[in-house]
Design brief:
single chain, four-stranded antiparallel β-sheet, 2 helices, 4 strands
Length: 123
């Protein structure tokens, strides 16, 4: 079985901004393979908690006060290409995410090879 090295990216997005962030990422990379595009996952029932510190410029919450809000967790993968990762982060996520410091987590991972040369199916 052939494996493809990827970056698996998880982004926490405030409710109401998920589609904007997804569209921003997909303008940079179609998120897919030879058979499918727009391949991603999201969970809309997550919560985030944080306390803005002095010097921050929070979109939500107040300096020094604990803040909790509903968020979505977006997960997608891209080929393990550092230039593509940098572009997705800068032009896809940061350019479309409303937060000063988006919660973004990147993992080196592998997935089953998908493509015209792979003998797998989806659906």
């Amino acid at each position: 079985m052939d494996l493809q090295s990827i970056y698996r990216i998880t982004v926490f997005v405030p409710n109401g901004s998920l589609r904007h962030v997804v569209d921003g990422v997909k303008r940079v990379h179609p998120l897919g393979d030879d058979y499918y595009d727009s391949v991603l996952w999201y969970v809309t029932a997550a919560n985030e908690e944080f306390r803005p510190r002095s010097g921050s410029n929070p979109v939500r919450g107040r300096i020094g006060e604990l803040h909790n809000e509903a968020v979505s967790m977006l997960v997608f993968s891209i080929p393990r290409d550092r230039a593509l990762l940098d572009k997705v982060l800068a032009d896809g996520i940061r350019a479309s995410h409303p937060w000063e410091a988006p919660g973004v987590f990147i993992e080196k991972s592998w997935t089953l090879e998908q493509g015209k040369s792979a003998s797998t199916s989806r659906g």
